[in-house]
UniProtKB/TrEMBL annotation:
Protein name in the entry: Adenosine 5'-phosphosulfate reductase
Major place of residence: cytoplasm
Role: Catalyzes the formation of sulfite from adenosine 5'-phosphosulfate (APS) using thioredoxin as an electron donor.
Alphabetized UniProt keyword annotations: Cytoplasm, Iron, Iron-sulfur, Metal-binding, Oxidoreductase
Keyword Secreted: no
Amino acid sequence: MTAITLIEDAASLNSQLGSLDLAGRLSLVAGLGGRVVFTTSLGIEDQVITAEIGNHRLPIEVATLQTGRLFPETLALIDETESQYDINIVRYEPEQADIDAYAEKYGLNGFYESVEARHACCGVRKLKPLARALSGASIWITGLRRGQSANRADTPFAEFDPERNLIKINPLADWDIDVIRAYVADNSVPVNPLHARGYPSIGCEPCTRAIKPGEPERAGRWWWENDEKRECGLHVHEESASAAQ
């Protein structure tokens, strides 16, 4: 499909999805044809989507980026989630050669030293594995929500991703955290125990801390940087990520 066609399709989907519940949104997307991939970080939002996919047996591939630096609690939750919903979560890992090259240039934990080094680490451990996960996909489902940060306040239900030439679906865009928590409680969804310890947003262990009362949900990600719009690059276009540096 051409970019113009995908932009038009995304706009149409964005209008349709708003009036549906979560199951309806995912079912609609799953029925569009092509390869549909949901990438999960095992955060509370993503667990809600995984529960809907598993409970309704939707033909949506579930994948995760096993960066090599995840919390033990996150790794354990992958296995627990697969067992509870009888699904397979495909792990995409970084290439050892890329990790070695990064360490030689910046040091293993060089991401603390500069934004450039941090983006390079995210590139090796997240962006390149994501590219493999989405190779050949026509639709990418994420757990993005408008309430996660100011940078995500305008998150649509559907959008065209020009870098990956696919349609990106954010079925929880309009869900707030209280609705998420209620769904988890009502449906016995397994969640990362770190959430109860002050980690609303959980990424790699060296780059995530608990937040303080009153801080935004994603304040604990890359907390040593000053840019309030800091992201790893998964959900910002390349030019935006470069500008943030």
